[in-house]
Amino acid sequence: MRWRLLALEPGQAIAALKAHHLALDAWSVENLIADLQSLLNDMPLPPPPFDFVAFANWQKTCLAQDAVSDQRAYWRQRLALSPTLSRGNHVGEVRLVQRAIATSIWPARLADDLGRAARRLQCTRFVLLVAGLARAIAAVSGCSAVAIAADVANRPGGFEGAIGLFSNTVLLLLDGSAASPPVEQLAQTRQTVIDALLNADLPFEIVRDDYETATGHSGSDLLRHMFLYAPAARVEDETAPIRVSPLDLGQQGTAGLLVAAPFVFAFDEDSGDDARASINYSAGECDDSRARSLLEQWRAAVESLLWPGEARQQQQTDPASRRHEPE
């Protein structure tokens, strides 16, 4: 990591941090900024919940167990069944790229229907959103085999906040074809999520290496699409001594970032009455028009899962049922 401190005037300065994404990701930056805020406010740092060595020891213990061998066999079988995935020209290259963000607001009624439908279909909001996202990606890419990486590995012992995004990544290999009936697709997606979580002790990098061996393709294919079931964006405290801003490269988009995934999808249900779906994309892979089209496809796919066939027609014709119709 490299730091530069630029003094502007007494009591005011800009600190610039440059780091490789392998060493510092967004989760790590949040921890770093929180510690700096505490120190600048003359507050003692709380003791860390665990030593990073504890995570390394836990993972080493997992790798020595027979159960992880069974998990590796599971992933090898799954990868063999999905040899061809949606790919692009710059898939997963860790390099300086221009990023941009497109956002779509989903009305509160649609967000509420996600919860009702999840209970009715015996799944979760996460399953509904992932199934719809797989359909949208398949429709846009023309490839029904879709790999979505999600940060839901649920590492034990409170490790998540310290080990970063990719150590918490679990791979979901999904069929995004719209040919399957919605109920059947949701059941398949639910089982895929359950099986992936049951086999999530195996480090993601081993899954990636096995994919390269099995298919001869780049393991970065598995990180083409990431999905973050995101909490509400943190509101910056205007009185805080530190404010964080991304580097502006003076081009269209947000910033030059070292990223592995060309497409990062997020869904935030805590931004008020409405929900917010967004896509953070590489400008080399996509443009604003295509990104917004993909967001519309995602919403349409989720709606088709919520109100399939006759149920959707009833939503359109029955005034009593229109109380759940999205605006």
Proportion of strand residues = 15-25%
Radius of gyration: 21 Å
Question: Can you write the helix and strand succession as a string?
Answer: EEHHHEHHEHEHHEEEEHH
Strand order of the largest sheet: 5-4-6-8-9-3-7
Largest beta-sheet details: 7 strands, mixed
Low-confidence regions: 89-96, 231-239, 247-258, 310-327
Mean pLDDT: 75
Roughly how much helix do the residues carry, as a percent range?
40-55%
Work out the helix count. Answer: 10
Structural class: alpha+beta
What is the CA–CA distance across the termini?
A: 47 Å
| Inertia-based shape | globular
Oligomeric state of shown chains: single chain
Which helices and strands occur, and which strands form pairs?
Elements: E1 2-9, E2 12-18, H1 26-40, H2 52-63, H3 66-81, E3 95-106, H4 108-120, H5 125-141, E4 145-150, H6 160-163, E5 170-175, H7 182-198, H8 204-215, E6 225-230, E7 256-259, E8 263-268, E9 275-282, H9 288-306, H10 309-317
Parallel strand pairs: 4-6, 6-8
Antiparallel strand pairs: 1-2, 3-7, 3-9, 4-5, 8-9
Helix pairs in contact: 3-8, 5-7, 5-9
